[in-house]
Structure formats: structure tokens, C-alpha cells
User: Fold these one by one.
Assistant:
Number 1:
Amino acid sequence: QVLTGKQKEELNKAILEYLTSNGYPNTAGTFKGESGAAIAENETASMANILEKKWTSVLRLQKKVMELEAKIEQLNEELSNASVVKNPNSLANPAELDDLLPKQPAKYTFEGHRALVSKVVFHPSYTMIASCSEDASIKFWDFESGQYERTVKGHTGTINDIAFDPQGKLLASASSDLTIKLWDMTSYLSIKTLNGHDHSVSSVEFVPAGDFLVSASRDKSIKLWEVATGYCVRTFLGHSEWVRCATIDETGRMIASCSQDQNVILWNIDNPNPHMVLSEHTHVVERVCFLRGTRSKQMVSEADFSKALLNNEEEKADQNGTGTKKKAAPKQENLDEVYKNVRFVLSASRDKTIKLWSCATGACLFTFLGHDNWVRGLATHHSGKYFYSCSDDKSIRIWDLSNGKCTRKLLDAHNHFVTTISSSPRYLYVVTGSVDNTVRVWQLK
């Protein structure tokens, strides 16, 4: 028997109480006669609704067990991919620093925004992050101390994106009020407003030199602005729908943009016409991100998933007479020069995928699969070995560029969709923002 005599007696009493209190007197009488169950007068209060209470408790426990099983599976997966790492403060070996990844729980959760957080960015020098929101405010936080710093306001609509200039002296903000504002980071005052877009401004980013910035808009255009004057010096047209994001590579010569039209377009900064259109996504493309640094480019170039495609493209170029003779493998000290003009771009889409593209050929080298909902944000890892993504499935994922595998998943990173992610190679932190109105800081361990 599964139940002891005592347990069986308690169960019978619970069933009898349920039948009696829920309007089944005939069934209760029959059950009482067959089972011999009886509820004493002093037990009436303690037996009230006892069966329903036990039933709902079982369901809650069952749900908890399922959540714990999913967590165990995630931890086992992390353990299988993990390497032994010491405390970051005592790391002597640079290789150990390379494998530091964010872990749960978050170090800090910042609350203060009254609507979804649309973008978070690190200051290039200070232990400061900035966040912007649909509440039309920009907030500043110290991610080491966990302290709120200040709030600035000036836009009259949602702020969709923010970006620091390379020196951290200026902050640019892009808004649904059709404007871009430049903020002085000494006075925290708006010093310039850039007008020219005819619809919501989706994204903004400074070029590496800091003298120009690139913006994307729902008016289907991308614009290049001179920071000193606030004038628009070039407009790029080619997308047929809302341009969600435009970003510039580390040389400052190539722009990548993505759109509601499901395409990624590459542009030469001196030419307002599209250089190359990349079309394999099957839904809106939310974000594009260039891989930066020699390490990332080398890893992709030497990865098994991309070798065949890149070699095929080289062979075609050779056959067409446009290729160059293959050179001997470069020495380590020459790698920076070799990869200086090699470009790869990542694109994140509502089709739940992330794609890696060669900017030289337009070939899709790899599709990263794993997210269960729209992929909203991308960021590069300080080592160049990995990159981060965030999604409406409420997770953060870390992907290995050498094999295309998901190295780590942070499930339920927020209580709602994760809209934005940013990383700091200087301080080894990651920060995210969400529809739950919070900003979370994750320390790499």
C-alpha cells in the first residue's frame, strides 16, 4: 500500500469534507458509509477546504520542481563549458581573464525609470553607466558603488538610443520627438539639438574619431552629422522601411544598418548609395554590431563554420581574376595589419536568430540558434572570443565565435523582455535594460 492507515484516514476525511461543503450530500453519505470516515466536531475548522489547499500546494510544488530542474540543466551546461578561474583581482594569466563571463545573480538592480529601458551604455572612462527610457529621461548610475547619480530631461518623447563620444565628454541621445540632442558631460546640459529626420530617431552612434555621428530613423533614412556644427552632411537612402539601427566599424569607413524591411545594408561612409544588401532574415532585424579587434576577426576567419565559405569566395575571386595570391600565414606581430580591413558584422532579428556576415562577400557565415523569442541586443566580449545577446525570452546568452555554440545562458535575467545589453572591456562588467523598467549590472566572474 502507498498510504499508511493514518494517511488513508486523513485523506478520507478530506474527501468527505470536500463533498459535504461543495453540495454533494448523497455522494458524501454513500462515501461516509463505505469508507467509515467521520469528522469530529473539534476537527471541523481544521478540515475546512483541506483538499483544495493540498491540491494547490501540489501544483505549486510541481511548478517549483520544474523550475529547479531547468536551473540544474542550465548549471550542468555551464559546468561542462566552464574552465577554472580565480578571483579577477588575483588573475595573473591573461588567458584566465579571457574566460570571465557574467553569472547570476546580478550585482545590482537599478530602479527609477517609469517605463521600459531602451538603451544602456558604459562611459568610456568612468565607472558610470547611462540609461534611457520611454519615460523621456536619461539616468546616470555608478555601477561599482551601485549608486544613482542623476537624471537629465529635455526630450518630449521616448528616448530610443544614447551613445558617448570616445572621450566621454559628450552624450548623444536619439528620440521619437524627431531630434538628436548632444549633452555636455561636465554640466549635464543639452548643448545642441540636431533636426532633420522626419520620423522617430531609432539609433545614434559616434564615429571612432568623435567628430561625426551616425543616426537611423523610422523615416527610412540614415544620416551623418558633423558634431561641431550640428549639420547633416550626408543622407543614406536604400531601406524601404523603418531603419532600426545603424552602426559604424572601428575604421570609421563602413556603416551597417538594419531595418523593418528584414535587410542589413552595408554602406561606404563617403557614398550615400548602398554598397551591399544582406538578405537572409525572415523578420525585422533589430540590431547590427561589427566585430571589433584582431582576435574576433581571426577567430571567425579560422572557424570551421566559415573556412569553407570564405575559401570558396576566394576561389571565385581567383577565377574571375579579382583575387590575390595566397600568402604565407602571417606572424603574430603582423596580425593587426592583416585583419585591419577585414570586417564581419552580426545581425539580431525578430526571427529569433543571430547571423554572422562577411562584409567582403556578403555571405552569411553562420546562424546562431537558441533564443526562443525576438533577439533585441548584441554586445562584444572583452576577449574577442565571445559575444553577448539579449532577447524577449528574458535571457542573456554568450556565444563562442570559434564554434558558434552558446557557452552560457542566463535565464530569467529580468522579469520581462531584455531590450538592451552593453559590455565594458575596461571594467569587466555587463549591463542590461528591460521592459520591467530596471537596469541590471552583471559582474564577470
Number 2:
Amino acid sequence: LDAASAKDGQDMKKKSKFRRGLDRVLTAMSNYENEEGKSPTNQNNESGEESGGGRNGGVADNGWGSSLEVTSEVRDRPIKLHGTTGILHKKSRSDDDVITEDEEGERPMEYGPAASYRALMEGVDNMCTAEGSNVSGMATTWDVAAVNARDEFREHFEDYVNDIWENDENNAFDKFFLMVELPFTTMRKLSIPIPCDDYYCRGLVAMAITICPLWFGMYMILERKVNLFIFGGFPYIEIATITAGIIGFFFAKFAPPEDKDLSLNVSVPIAFLGFVIAATWIDAIADLLVKLLTLLGVICRIPNSIMGLTILAWGNSMGDLSANMTMAKKGLANMAITACFAGPVFNILIGLGGGFAKLNSETGQEYAEVDLSPSINVGFGFLVVNCIFVMVAGLIVNRGHIPKGYGYVALALYVMYIVASIVLQYYDPEGGDDDE
């Protein structure tokens, strides 16, 4: 029992900075005092910690309105933020602030709106920084934080442009197309927050958090024909942009610089947001690519069957191809191989399953007849052959490692599939009728 109690005590001491920061934020935004709702034993213990200059450094966790007296006879006075008597002024205090001394008379304890505001800011600061980090956004003012974020933002783009021209791996062909792509790359950077290593820039992440709702609204208009700027008379995107701007401004002040670690409790939600926005970019680019390839097929008078086997298939898979190749180049081979198989499985099971379920619900039919063309049957055959090659080469022969030579085998299989499908399309009477 004593060992269990000691362990519980250690767990309480190891309370994360994020949890402590979140507790201080919620308490500071309320009208409760730190001791409310706790047993007398806990109150005495925590008061003893605070009096000794414990975790709060002599600042009590009391709510913003805990010291305001609310009665039917006395009207609440407005709280001034700025000015010589404002609670944000460094050298003055409001009338509601109360300063007491602990039992030893060493550290003053502060109560009231000014102390609650400082506790709120310190709580946000603790939420952004990683455990063990000595970086604090409380050491800088809002103006200095904005200037620092702007300088980091400008330096990031200067380094990116210089890397295009000074990187020895880029030949003249790569430099030309990278510069042509630079405006679109800039738009993607400004709308996709990336808090990961080697890509993290405090000013850029803050800007992307602010702008990403605007891009999402444009995406919904272009791809889904839904106007979220005014949907049902409610400005969803405008409100989301204002909220994101406030979050981005707080991020610019309290987030650590590039050479420091960002708290996982903050970086993970931002990374998930960046994933969603990046998926919308991939979907929009892939859709435009398919439309462009379709236009080229019409101009060149390519039959629909050949368009589906080649150009449209390549266009629909271009997003997966670029993502998988990027992961493979970064050394994430297992993730790239898994995505190669997980993508088609998702499309077949979820895409076909959801499509047929919706068709049956709308038509009331219990089943639907599907005729498989010869090219689809050939595709199934080559897919089975490819899976067999992967199992033999990766599991049986090389014990979990796929050799480089398998890449040439896979390319040869795909060329054979394209040739066989085109031949069947031209010599199959049903395929000719479909083209007409």
C-alpha cells in the first residue's frame, strides 16, 4: 500500500507541462478560485507548495472574476485592459487586484484579473513548449513576437529560393520548372501547416493556420459546388478564418523557434489539419489533371477505351504515385509499399461497396448485373501475377526484403498489360460497340 501511494505521488509530480498549462488556462478563464471543489487536505498541501514558490512561482490559479464582488446593490465595474490603470499595464494594477504574502513573507501572492491574465498566458505558453524546454513566449511582447515570426517567414522563403539555384543536384531543367512551379508552391506552403522537423517554421505555420480555412472554402466551391462562405445564410469560412487567425497569432508568440521542439499536444493536431488540407490540394490537382488529359484525348481523337486504360488511369493515380515516390525517396519504403496496396483495396472495397449500396437503396433492387470487359479480366490476371511475384521475391526468397530487380519486373508486367488490353479492345466486337 505504501509503495502504491508513493507511485501515485510520483505520477502527480510528473504531470506534463501541457496538462498544467491547460489547467491554468481553464481556471484563469473561469470565475473560480484554485481551492474550490477540493478537500481541506489538498487545499493545505497546495497552499504550502505555492507559499514555498512551487509550480506557479507565487502566482495563484484563481479565475479572472474570482475577486469581483457581485451583489444586487453594487454594479460590476468594467475591467480596463490598457492605460495606466489597465490590468495589462506593467507598472500599475487595477483596484480588484489583491496582493497577499505567504506565511514566511518571502513571495507575494497575486489575485485578481491581472494575475489571472498572466496565468492564462503562462498556461498557453506551457501548452506549446515541449517537456524540458527552457523556451518561453512570456519573455517577448506581442510586437516582438510578430516581428520575429515575420523575419522567420521571410528567411524561410529566401532559403527555399536559394536552395533551388545553389543545390548541385538540380540541373538546368529542374531549376527552370521549379521556378515555374514556385507560385503554386508558395500557395501550398501558405495554406498547409507543417509542424514537422526540417519543414517547421514558426511564422509560416502561423500564417498557414490562418489561411487554410480560405483555401478550404475555395476548394469546396471549385470541387464540390458548395459555398461555405455563405451557406444557409451563415458565414462559416469567415468565422473559421477569424478563429484561425487568433490561434495563429497565439502560435506565433508562444511556439518555440525552429531549433527547439514543439509540444506533441500542439504539433499533432496541426499536423492532422495539414494532412486534411494537403489531401484537398491533391484532389484538386488530380481533378484538373484528369480534365486536361481528357481534353487532350478529345483533341487527338483517342478512343474512350484507350483513354480509360492509359491517360485517365495515369491521371487518377498521379496523386498516389507522387505521394508514394516521395515516401520511398525519404526512406519510408514500408509505408510506400503499404500505401501501394492499401489504396486499391480502399477503392475497390469502399468505392464499389458504397457505390452499389447507394445504387440499391435508390433503385430498390437487390442486385445489379455487371459485365466485365476483357481488359478488366486481363487486369485481374496481371494483378494476381504481380501479387505472386511480390510474395515470392519479398517473403520467400529475400526474407522480407524486396530486391531492386523487382521494379523492372513490375514495369514489364504493366507494359504487357497495356499492350494486351489495347489488342483486346481493337479485336473485341463488344469493345468496338462501346467506343461508338
